[in-house]
Write a structure and sequence with these properties.
This protein has seven helices and ten strands. The chain has about 325 residues and is of the alpha+beta class. The protein has three domains: about 20-125, no CATH class; about 130-240, Tetrahydropterin Synthase, Chain A; about 255-300. The longest helix is centred in the C-terminal third of the chain and has 40 residues, at about 240-280. It starts with 17 loop residues before the first strand and ends in a 16-residue tail after the last helix. The model is unreliable at about 110-125 (pLDDT under 50).
Length: about 325
């Protein structure tokens, strides 16, 4: 029966390093001493009394060789920058202190290593600064099945350098792929507009959607030692094939809402007008005349065009 291997989780711990300037003085003294030992151990021609010392030659040569190798142990770190140290495939810790350092040259990148690259020994520089990821405009279906276009911006940073270096293949690519997957999932969980029972929508519930997107991203990116600082939608629109239809629907809804507001205000104005006429005893209206006046006032107040006055010289009963 085949066995299933689970992913080994890595946890960051502090790595060791020495002050760079102190080690630079020791390094120079070491090289000078090795060179003096090497030079003094070689016999001088023409001087029989100055014989060579094989042991001194070997020790001086080894001292010079080690001094040259130790040059690769110097490295600098800027604020919010870390160095992951690996020795022959074994994780030895992470250095986060900014400044000039020296560490074991077999697992620490040297001064002449390009920034952000790893040497053959396996040391890696990782930025701890906040990064911004702008997703491409994605075409997905919302909760009601309507095709929409959506895009988002994600602010993230590396919190655990060991997880970022060892638990995923490429943590920056991992952030990109998982962010797009989370955006698709959030878009399908909300309606574009007009949610059921006052539920938040993509268009009206910006804060709720942002919180849900950040929570979804954090759950996905925690495997890579990444913390999501903020996530928000930057683009939201209907897909081109239904944009014109949805625009007409929105226009119709806006017209209906405006008409309802106008009618509500007109009814209040008519009620006020009739009450003033009766309270000041300007005119006495029977039910039929009252209905006629209400009809005329509503036509004037709710019509789109200017009203044209008509003088009635007769009577409603003739």
């Amino acid at each position: 029966m085949p066995t299933t291997r689970t992913l080994t989780r890595t946890s960051e711990h502090a790595g060791g390093s020495l002050p760079g300037f102190v080690m630079l003085v020791v390094h120079l003294l070491w090289i000078l001493g090795a060179f003096w030992l090497f030079a003094s151990s070689i016999g001088r021609p023409g001087l029989p009394e100055s014989g060579s010392s094989p042991v001194g030659v070997v020790l001086g040569f080894l001292g010079l060789a080690f001094g040259l190798v130790a040059v690769n142990g110097y490295f600098t770190l800027q604020p919010n920058e870390a160095r992951v140290q690996i020795l022959f495939g074994s994780y030895k810790g992470t250095v986060r202190r900014s400044g000039f350092h020296w560490a074991n040259p077999f697992y620490t990148a040297g001064l002449f290593t390009p920034r952000g690259r790893a040497t053959s020994a396996g040391a890696t520089r990782i930025s701890l600064r906040v990064h911004n990821f702008n997703s491409e405009t994605l075409k997905v279906n919302d909760k009601r099945g309507n095709p929409v276009e959506i895009a988002a911006v994600v602010a993230w940073r590396v919190a655990d350098t060991a997880q970022a270096a060892f638990d995923v293949e490429d943590y920056k690519r991992y952030v990109q792929v998982q962010s797009e997957a989370a955006i698709r999932g959030i878009a399908s969980s909300f309606a574009y507009d007009h949610g059921e029972h006052d539920e938040p929508t993509l268009r009206s519930g910006a804060e709720e959607v942002a919180e849900a997107l950040q929570a979804e991203l954090q759950a996905r990116l925690a495997k890579a030692g990444v913390v999501v600082e903020e996530a928000r939608l930057t683009h939201l629109a209907y897909a081109p094939e239904i944009a014109s239809v949805m625009l007409r629907r929105q226009q119709a809804e806006a017209i209906v809402a405006a008409r309802a507001q106008i009618v509500q205000g007109a009814v209040g104005m008519v009620r006020t007008a009739l009450a003033e006429l009766e309270s000041q005893q300007i005119v006495q209206l029977d039910p039929e005349r009252r209905a006629a006046m209400v009809s005329n006032l509503l036509v004037v107040l709710c019509g789109n065009a200017d009203a044209s006055p008509v003088i009635n010289t007769g009577t409603l009963y003739g």
